[in-house]
Amino acid sequence: MPFDANNVFHDGTTITGNLSPTSITRTSGSSVLAVMSTPAKGMAAVLVMGADLAEASDTFQVSIEECATVDGTYVEVARFPLLTKGTGMPGTYIRRFDSNKDYIRAKIVATDSDAGSDFTVANVHILLAFHPFILL
After folding, report:
1. Where are the beta strands (DSSP E) in 40-117?
2. DSSP string, 10-71
3. Whole-number Å distance between alpha carbons of 11 and 124
4. Where are the domains of the chain?
5. CA-closest candidate to residue 35, choices 6, 2, 74
6. pLDDT of residue 116
7. What are the residues whose beta carbons fall under 8 Å from the beta carbon of 95, sequence distance 6 or more?
8. pLDDT tens across the length of the chain (136 residues)
9. How far is CA 94 from CA 12, 58, 84, 87, 97, in A?
10. What is the spatial distance between Cα 13 and Cα 122, in angstroms, rounded to a whole number?
11. Gap between the Cα atoms of 40 and 119, Å rounded
């Protein structure tokens, strides 16, 4: 794992469907991170796509969300581009965000275009970094 586990939204575990974690305990490779608000210059979420999607019409969307409680109602603070097969994967994407809430998570929405329950994407890492990281 490239970062300390406390800075990892998703750890590279193969994704086979939607993930909306509501616990700081890692489940299916994803977890909520307890940040207790971001620094003044914000933070950055880094999406590393290590592989392309398997089918041409499948879509993959990741958004960063905040909440005052670990299992409450989350609100989006940043969104990565909608990805489809052949659109910048493998690749790395960075989104800066600010939050004054205690908890943040990466919400993953995977759309299986043929509804065959065969969606899969491997080697996806979603990481948290302080904003100066994106200035390097």
Report:
1. 43-49, 59-67, 75-79, 83-84, 91-97, 103-111
2. EESPPB-S-B---SSS-BTTB--EE-SS--TT-EEEEEEE-S--SSTT-EEEEEEEEESSTT
3. 7
4. 5-135
5. 6
6. 64
7. 44, 45, 47, 64, 78, 79, 80
8. 445 677 899 999 999 889 999 999 999 999 999 887 667 678 899 999 988 888 888 899 999 999 999 999 999 999 999 998 888 788 999 999 988 889 999 999 988 877 667 788 889 999 998 655 444 4
9. 17, 22, 17, 16, 10
10. 7
11. 39
Write the single-letter amino acid at 124.
V
Which 3 state secondary structure label does DSSP give 117? coil
Tokens of 85: 């097969």
- Distance between CA atoms of residues 113 and 100, nearest Å: 36
pLDDT for res 92:
93
| Residue 55 confidence (pLDDT) | 82
Length of the chain: 136
Q: Quick one: fold of 5-135? A: Jelly Rolls (2.60.120)
